[in-house]
Amino acid sequence: MVAEQKTPQGSIGGLGLVLASFGRGVLVQAGATTLHCALTGRKQRVVCGDRVTWGYPPSADGASVLSVEPRRNLIERIDARGRAEPVAANIDRLAIVVAAEPTPDWFLVDRYWAGALLKDLGALLIVNKQDLGTRAMQPELETYRGLGLPCIETASQSGQGMAELKGALVGRVTLLVGQSGVGKSSLVNALDPQAAALTAELTRDVEGRHTTTTARWYSLADGTAIIDAPGVRDFAPPASLVRAAERGFAEIHDLGTGCRFKDCRHMEEPGCAVRLAAVSGRVAARRYESYRRLYRLYEKLAP
Ligand SMILES: Nc1nc2c(ncn2[C@@H]2O[C@H](COP(=O)(O)OP(=O)(O)OP(=O)(O)O)[C@@H](O)[C@H]2O)c(=O)[nH]1
Ligand SMILES: [Mg+2]
Ligand SMILES: [Zn+2]
Fold first, then answer.
1. DSSP code, position 151
2. Going residue by residue through the chain (303 aa), what tens digit of pLDDT does each one get?
3. Residues with CB under 5 A from ligand 2 (ion)
4. How far apart are the CA of 129 and the centre of ligand 1, in A?
5. Residue identifier of the C-alpha nearest atom 5 of ligand 1
């Protein structure tokens, strides 16, 4: 990467990596230094993980983002009003973090996983806070293992499982997602002692507020990177994709070939093989319920 070069205006600038975005400005890694850059133009949208060209345009007071390189992918979530909100760009994998505390929201896990599948991203489940026990989670974990979702058990405080996690992350860009308080930032700090990511015990956290407020990129050795993101409860993959709900649930997609109607949505249709499988236990009832909830959400957002 060219860290510094002359721009046509004769000022210094170059290529950089966006470590974090704060709405009106971004933190850019340019070679060995990091700098704050302003955005140019009201429509410019820059997110964590973007590759950008920065410089000093005559129209601005300081360093600014001049252009954004084409993205490999863009991870968005939809907010309560159905608007897409960008989280991060150019990632390889989603790591969904759960823990005994706060009580896991498995519907949320399904949505994250569906979101990864829709974007052709790999996914893995990190089961953190092993010191608090995981007995109550075992049935769900069995379901996920059975469906081929890799599960890694960690305790960021004691270091348990961190070597295995490190190995699983090598050479790729992984976005950490999951409910607020499961320990995403704590995992980042355990992986990279220099990260100094803010965690709940370091902030006088008002209950319900997220400790991490914006996605942040951390580079580890050998091209490995992790992005710490704020915990969100209402995450859903964007609704614009056709039959998004179904494509996000591989086992439901597979069973769908046995439905009476080719365009079966697996909701109330007669002869639905998926519904039958959920009743007989071939498909986990909770996964099917997850599918139905996501489907209804899409119907509400994009009728
Ligand atoms: N018992 C136990 N607690 C942990 C462990 N890892 C993190 N915690 C605690 O869990 C709380 C939340 O940790 P954070 O890392 O701030 O959680 P987060 O997922 O980043 O939360 P948000 O930024 O709000 O999304 C803190 O009080 C941590 O000390 C662990 O392995 N075991
Ligand atoms: Mg955090
Ligand atoms: Zn069906």
1. E
2. 444 444 444 458 899 999 999 878 999 999 989 999 999 877 788 999 999 999 998 888 889 999 999 999 998 887 667 777 889 999 999 999 999 999 999 988 998 898 888 888 999 999 999 999 999 999 999 999 999 999 999 999 999 999 999 999 999 999 999 998 999 999 999 999 888 777 766 554 445 566 777 899 999 988 899 999 988 655 666 554 446 667 788 899 899 999 999 989 899 999 999 999 999 999 999 999 999 988 887 777 765
3. 184-185, 211-212
4. 8
5. 129
211 CB near ligand 1 (under 6 Å): yes
Q: What are phi and psi of 283, to 5 degrees?
A: -110, 135
| Three-state secondary structure readout of 207-265 | CCCCCCCCCEEEECCCCCEEEECCCCCCCCCCCCCCCHHHHCCHHHHHHHHHCCCCCCC
Q: How far apart are CA 33 and CA 16, in angstroms?
A: 10
The rounded distance, in Å, linking the Cα atoms of 132 and 140 is: 17
Rounded to whole angstroms, the Cα distance separating 121 from 20 reads 21
204 Cα to the center of ligand 1, angstroms: 14
Q: Verify whether ligand 1 is closer than 6 Å to residue 184 (CB atom).
A: yes
pTM summary value: 0.87
Q: Is the CB of 268 under 6 A from ligand 1?
A: no
